[in-house]
Protein: (2Fe-2S)-binding protein
Organism: Streptomyces mashuensis
Amino acid sequence: MSDFVRVCALGELDDDTPKRVEVDGVAVSVVRTEGEVFAINDICSHANVSLSEGEVENCHIECWLHGSSFDLRTGKPDGLPATRPVPVYPVKIEGDGPDAAVLVSVTQES
Ligand code: FES
């Protein structure tokens, strides 16, 4: 079962600027980049650091503390020190234009 929850309007997301939201008590970083919207768990798999404070580039989000970069599509790190993936979640867009709803489900990992 997957429960999609509205987290924001599409127009609230700036390209390559992560937005930290909570979905059913789970901290999630929502990222609009390269024409798509991704949702990744906000906590780095290396230490308790918010990924939303990192930079987005080439469909990856970089942890600002030690520099591991996680693929927004898979959650996998592309380099040390992190070795474990971060959960990523399915995203749905409902509607059109800036008012379209961005929905995320944390009950299943994508
Ligand atoms: S806390 Fe994120 S790479 Fe170390």
Observations:
- The radius of gyration is 13 Å.
- The chain has a mean pLDDT of 95.
